[in-house]
Fold these 2 entries.
Entry 1:
Amino acid sequence: MKPCSLYVHIPFCKSKCAYCDFFSVVCKNNIDDAYIQKLLDEAEKRAVQFDVSAWNTVYFGGGTPSLLTAAQIKALISGLKAVRPIAENAEITFECNPDDITIELLHALSENGVNRLSVGLQSMQNEPLAIVNRRAGRAENLRAIELISKYWLDSPENDRADVSLADSAHTKHRFSVDLICGLPGETCESFFDGLDEVIHCGADHVSLYSLTLEEDTPLYNAVDSGRVELPEIEETDSWWIKARDILEENGFEQYEVSNFAKKGCQSRHNMTYWKMQPYIGIGAGATGTAGSLRYTNSRSIKDWLNGSGEEQEVLTPDIQKFEFLMMGFRTLEGADISEFERRFNEKIDVIEPVFSKWCKKGLAKRTKNLLALNKEGLLLLNCFLKEIMDFFEKE
Ligand code: SF4
């Protein structure tokens, strides 16, 4: 038996953001308790299937987990602990919409052992937030930051948090913010004003994404028909690079393509994906991967509740090798050579010609055990991966 990371999918949102192509359904009222019960049933089933001894990290993502009531949060987390213990000092992350943050929600999360909030602010300005149909505007974002500062970062529970509690997994309360660079309605000045507010809001982690225009989303259609105009891509690319540098000057070190953290505050849960360690996903539309098996649950809530519609894929050794490299190269730490050799019982030589070329261009570096792109190389990650993929296909 081994410990494993757990992802809990809550695929419900009060309204849909115009750029979003994640799987979530609109839910105007409370989430049904039947969904919570089924999550616990699935946790039990997967724990047995994958021989799990404990939950290493837990991540409640969505959708919008902050739509759960305090009673549902309690039932869900205590139920997960009853299935398998949560490892001592495990990172337990909960995604929140700023509009849902209340003193009661923060208390419910803290009391049940959640120690990391991930809050999708996305922008600090009303116009971009309104154009992409975010539920929270500037006032709601500011109110969320104030409540988090007062009742999460400075809470009495947080003062006690370094003391391990017998049945829980408390570490210091942490706080991560998501921002999107290049939203319509954002200007250079408004974007950097917002970044400055985020840097000083008490967060220890920032995910800085570039807007991607996904086909068949309302934003894609609005841009396509000329109803909405995006800032120029060359301009927003330069904003992103400047924002990266500002974050770093302020102690947020880049450790992955889009992720920045103060010392010791990297997302441990997401690191399990980037290191291709096993994880279990539960909930409609969730995915899990362990060794060569990957399963994906049905995106139909009804089918998932009935226990049907699961798909399984057996990952060939070549797919596993490519994914190991693809995920490893997303991080500044890079791909671990000895881990590759241990897992696949072969040398990593297959990518040597591509990697050497990128080293010569000053975009990659090799240390004893690691192959990694540097910060400038990471800006061209997709080109690098394409070259690696071409090599795998030629082999
Ligand atoms: S809240 Fe998140 S998951 Fe829901 S529609 Fe918006 S971006 Fe998508």
Entry 2:
Amino acid sequence: MKKRIEEVLNQQINEELYSAYLYQAIRAYFESIGLSGFSNWMKVQAEEELFHAEKFFSHIVQRGGRIRLTAIKEPAFEWKNPLDAFKASLEHEKHITSCIHNLVSVAEEEKDYPSKTFLNWFVDEQVEEEDNVSKIVQELEMIENDGKGLLMIDRELSSRTFTPPTNEE
Ligand SMILES: [Fe+2]
Ligand SMILES: [Fe+2]
């Protein structure tokens, strides 16, 4: 595997691990305001991010690359309200989408077709990720921090569980 590809894929491991770290921080914020369903949703979100990091790890190893882990930056600690926290999540997912698109461009430039095919899964995944988070942002905007509405969404989000995709290589 070419050095440039190895380097950018390693950077993405850091991005995915930071994503997990950020969602754990938001989870902790939700715990601090007594919203256990929101907290559960963020816990599952963090688990998915670890799964993403693992996919990049395996791909690099499988292609004969070397893993280099770097420092993960500190996530924010406080958010104004649940809407603010979900808006931050949406912004972050958009950032990740642009990272993935950039990786696809590098894979194309370097003619690394196996990496390009590997990245297709993430291109689709990001469409889903942004859509899921946007829907919750919309719901939160609708209720305008109304307590009853928050509890309804909290109950809804409490049922989310982590299921790793099965049709994976
Ligand atoms: Fe991710
Ligand atoms: Fe994500």
